[in-house]
């Protein structure tokens, strides 16, 4: 079959992130471990960043620290990702101080001991004490984790992409997790919520494609964060817990990731280098998703 070329193709002279310079990004969860390194990556290429966090003091502290180290324009803005009115107020502040929003990163999330079972698999011996199993979970904790991770992605997207609609351009990047592909034992709410984030990423990418807005996600593998530290490290020795060792054993690269390992993938998905990429979730996981365990 003959393929007709209707135009001359242009080859890019430089593969850089220069197109991101001067763009305005709102990032939820930017004051966390993973969010912080993403903010540094954004600052390094000249993005103007608004760190949106329910703890205004923490957001402003991180913003000040990154700005001092990079010279970038970074601000901290108060908003709870589950409160639409607070998000709308935050958007007004961002527009006033930085300009219309070009990029949204939904990074707010986390797990909680209240939504975590004590046992990995039920045994007959658990029948007399169900509190350590799925049957002992309190809905309050389950709802809290599911809402933070899933609704905390949906609501900021409703609010912070309005400027993108007007310009017919923009990028949304969601932070998913390996749990979306392979639910880990003990954390049903977190796993279910991140699976929902993946599905929502694909749905929204289709919904907004003709508006010039791309929607993608990254799925971090296993990084030691404040949310999972109690699960993967032994509090007394500082060594890996039994669970932490299982993770390392089942990660082909044989280690936990460093948050900085996400920076390149994030910038790629935000930049014009990925201009024909939408609706995908890219694992950054040291090979965990590819490994069957055998």
UniProtKB/TrEMBL annotation:
<dbReference type="InterPro" id="IPR002347">
    <property type="entry name" value="SDR_fam"/>
</dbReference>
<dbReference type="GO" id="GO:0051213">
    <property type="term" value="F:dioxygenase activity"/>
</dbReference>
<keyword id="KW-0812">Transmembrane</keyword>
<dbReference type="GO" id="GO:0016616">
    <property type="term" value="F:oxidoreductase activity, acting on the CH-OH group of donors, NAD or NADP as acceptor"/>
</dbReference>
<protein>
    <submittedName>
        <fullName>Dioxygenase</fullName>
    </submittedName>
</protein>
<feature type="transmembrane region" description="Helical">
    <location>
        <begin position="20"/>
        <end position="43"/>
    </location>
</feature>
<keyword id="KW-0560">Oxidoreductase</keyword>
<keyword id="KW-0223">Dioxygenase</keyword>
<dbReference type="InterPro" id="IPR036291">
    <property type="entry name" value="NAD(P)-bd_dom_sf"/>
</dbReference>
<dbReference type="Pfam" id="PF13561">
    <property type="entry name" value="adh_short_C2"/>
</dbReference>
<dbReference type="InterPro" id="IPR020904">
    <property type="entry name" value="Sc_DH/Rdtase_CS"/>
</dbReference>
<keyword id="KW-1133">Transmembrane helix</keyword>
<keyword id="KW-0472">Membrane</keyword>
<comment type="similarity">
    <text>Belongs to the short-chain dehydrogenases/reductases (SDR) family.</text>
</comment>
């Amino acid at each position: 079959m003959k393929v007709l070329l209707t135009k001359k193709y242009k080859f890019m002279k430089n593969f850089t992130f220069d197109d991101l310079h001067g763009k305005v990004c709102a990032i939820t969860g930017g004051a966390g471990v993973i969010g912080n390194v993403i903010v540094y990556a954004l600052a390094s290429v000249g993005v103007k960043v608004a760190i949106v966090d329910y703890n205004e003091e923490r957001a402003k502290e991180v913003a000040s620290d990154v700005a001092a180290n990079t010279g970038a324009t970074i601000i901290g803005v108060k908003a709870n990702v589950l409160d639409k009115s607070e998000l709308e107020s935050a958007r007004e502040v961002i527009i006033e101080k930085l300009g219309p929003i070009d990029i949204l990163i939904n990074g707010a999330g986390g797990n909680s001991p209240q939504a975590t079972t004590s046992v990995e698999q039920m045994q007959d011996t658990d029948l007399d004490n169900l509190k350590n199993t799925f049957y002992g979970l309190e809905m309050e904790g389950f709802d809290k984790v599911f809402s933070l991770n899933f609704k905390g992605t949906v609501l900021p997207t409703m609010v912070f992409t309005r400027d993108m609609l007007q310009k017919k351009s923009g990028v949304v990047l969601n932070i998913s997790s390996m749990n979306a592909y392979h639910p880990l034992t003990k954390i049903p709410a977190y796993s279910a919520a991140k699976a929902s984030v993946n599905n929502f990423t694909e749905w929204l990418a289709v919904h907004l494609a003709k508006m010039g807005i791309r929607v993608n996600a990254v799925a971090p593998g296993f990084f030691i964060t404040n949310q999972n530290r109690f699960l993967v490290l032994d509090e007394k020795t500082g060594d890996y817990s039994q669970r932490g060792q299982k993770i390392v054993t089942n990660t082909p690269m044989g280690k936990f990731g460093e948050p900085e390992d996400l920076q390149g993938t994030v910038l790629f998905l935000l930049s014009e280098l990925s201009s024909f990429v939408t609706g995908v979730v890219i694992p950054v996981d040291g090979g965990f998703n590819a490994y069957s365990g055998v």
